[in-house]
């Protein structure tokens, strides 16, 4: 790694619940192509690629590790390293672990820390701002980026900036950070000329971050240090020590360091940034038609104005709507005035409290070998579509409460069943009686698609007894 290169640190956690029903815990917004191209994660990694950047370090949760790895592979992001958090403890422990991990190779490495789910429309301007921030970071500052407010946004934190720092063009001192304000305060802040939105991106050396965490939140650093010492390689991942990491206080880097340090600085950047944290925010950064509608998917809009209408499934028609967000997925629909986009989290919390699985799970569930999707469920039976990527291989397993019938509709399946080795092609099937030890594999060069019919007294996903698994799952 060149001494003047930046090391991207991409934080892949977060559930993006204000973008429900598209974004859910099982597949949060960072893995979705919100703006019609690549996923937010891949867009983030791509704008942090090139000769000025080292290979990225991604910090991800256990449950999403294979999506992260697969998107990096599909996007051609070479050399990506993936740290696995055993559980979410907010951003400070994640950043502490990343800084300690990178400091083992280069304590003075300059880290560019960012969330995986923000949008930037002017990448050259971003890189110019990064160059200014990196110079300040090498002088020992922890630099954030201030975005010029375009509206009295209550969903963002604000930065009050002070005087220019000598010898560091474009870098200002930070007077104070202001948490998400109410509407009246947001109007005052947005029009003051002294305040910017806090983008949540930071640039600092690994050494500076470690020193500041030691000074202001030593328990976070101690837990992260223990987790790094206990870390183990697992396939393409670095798995942090679970018991050690769980000792870290759950605290954001803003509270742990930025609001306490005397080394905070800010670069004011006009880069077309949005955290895409709500349906209204997505509408603002989306292409819109002559009636200011942002339409995506199987949608027809008649006499609508200022709407965001998105369908990831069935044909959706809207008539006479104004300033509304309407979002349709295969198993849930959301409709609300765009101005109330911040309230979506309240609906998610309500559904979660009632135990509604759509609050957290999609009908399509991703696995390291591919994905499956529920189609029909009734009393003692359910039907799923299973897609196995080329070379994918499910665990060797059995079930106590259900039998299964597989019908191949595309590709070739290799099935191990109680010691038999069976090959099945399109329009062929195989029956797996209750208790049969079995495994499914795609030996071909194209995706394997099959229909699975389950019949039994209990059909939950926890009725899987794994006997062997190449992906290290229990």
TrEMBL record:
Catalytic activity line of the entry: alpha-D-mannose 1-phosphate + GTP + H(+) = GDP-alpha-D-mannose + diphosphate
Boundaries of every MannoseP isomerase/GMP-like beta-helix domain copy: 301-350
Matches recorded under SUPFAM superfamilies: Nucleotide-diphospho-sugar transferases, RmlC-like cupins
Gene Ontology molecular functions: mannose-1-phosphate guanylyltransferase (GTP) activity; mannose-6-phosphate isomerase activity
E.C. number: 2.7.7.13
Keyword vocabulary terms for this entry: GTP-binding, Isomerase, Nucleotide-binding, Nucleotidyltransferase, Transferase
Chain ranges of the Mannose-6-phosphate isomerase type II C-terminal domain: 357-469
Domain Nucleotidyl transferase: 8-289
InterPro entries: GMPP_N, Man1P_GuaTrfase/Man6P_Isoase, Man6P_isomerase-2_C, ManC/GMP-like_b-helix, Mannose-6P_isomerase_type2, NTP_transferase_dom, Nucleotide-diphossugar_trans, RmlC-like_jellyroll
Protein family: Belongs to the mannose-6-phosphate isomerase type 2 family.
Protein name: mannose-1-phosphate guanylyltransferase
Taxonomic source organism: Sabulicella glaciei
Lineage: Bacteria, Pseudomonadati, Pseudomonadota, Alphaproteobacteria, Acetobacterales
């Amino acid at each position: 790694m060149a001494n003047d290169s930046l090391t991207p640190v991409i934080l892949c956690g977060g559930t993006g619940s204000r973008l429900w029903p598209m974004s859910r815990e099982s597949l949060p917004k960072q893995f979705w192509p919100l703006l019609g191209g690549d996923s937010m994660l891949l867009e983030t990694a791509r704008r942090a690629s090139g000769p000025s950047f080292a290979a990225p370090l991604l910090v991800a949760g256990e449950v999403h590790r294979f999506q992260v790895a697969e998107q990096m592979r599909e996007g051609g992001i070479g050399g990506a390293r993936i740290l696995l958090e055993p559980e979410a403890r907010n951003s400070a422990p994640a950043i502490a672990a990343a800084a300690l991990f990178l400091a083992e190779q280069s304590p003075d490495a300059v880290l560019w820390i960012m969330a995986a789910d923000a949008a930037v429309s002017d990448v050259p301007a971003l890189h110019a701002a990064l160059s200014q921030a990196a110079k300040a970071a090498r002088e020992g500052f922890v630099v954030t980026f201030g975005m010029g407010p375009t509206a009295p946004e209550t969903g963002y934190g604000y930065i009050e900036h002070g005087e220019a720092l000598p010898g560091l063009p474009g870098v200002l001192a930070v007077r104070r950070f202001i948490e998400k304000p109410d509407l009246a305060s947001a109007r005052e802040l947005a029009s003051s000329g002294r305040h910017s939105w806090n983008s949540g991106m930071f640039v600092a050396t690994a050494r500076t971050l470690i020193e500041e965490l030691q000074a202001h939140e030593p328990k976070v650093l101690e837990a992260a240090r223990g987790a790094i010492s206990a870390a183990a390689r697992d396939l393409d991942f670095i798995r942090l020590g679970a018991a050690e990491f769980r000792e870290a206080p759950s605290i954001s880097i803003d509270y742990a360091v930025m609001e306490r340090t005397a080394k905070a600085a800010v670069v004011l950047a006009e880069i077309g940034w949005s955290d895409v944290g709500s349906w209204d925010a997505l509408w603002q950064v989306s292409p819109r038609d002559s009636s200011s509608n942002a339409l995506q998917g199987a949608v027809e809009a008649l006499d609508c104005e200022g709407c965001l209408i998105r369908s990831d499934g069935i044909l959706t028609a809207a008539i006479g709507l104004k300033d509304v967000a309407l979002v349709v997925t295969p198993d849930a629909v959301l409709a609300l005035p765009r101005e109330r986009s911040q309230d979506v989290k309240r609906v998610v919390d309500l559904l979660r409290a009632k135990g509604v699985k759509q609050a957290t799970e999609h009908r399509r569930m991703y696995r390291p070998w591919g994905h499956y999707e529920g189609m029909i469920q009734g009393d003692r039976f359910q039907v799923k579509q299973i897609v196995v990527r080329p070379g994918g291989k499910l665990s060797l397993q059995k079930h106590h409460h259900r039998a299964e019938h597989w019908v191949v509709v595309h590709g070739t399946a290799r099935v191990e069943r109680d010691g038999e080795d069976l090959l099945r092609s399109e329009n062929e099937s195989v029956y797996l009686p209750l208790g049969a030890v079995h495994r499914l594999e795609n030996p071909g060069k194209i995706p394997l698609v099959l229909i699975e019919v389950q019949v039994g007294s209990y059909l939950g996903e926890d009725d899987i007894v794994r006997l062997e698994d190449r992906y290290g799952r229990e």
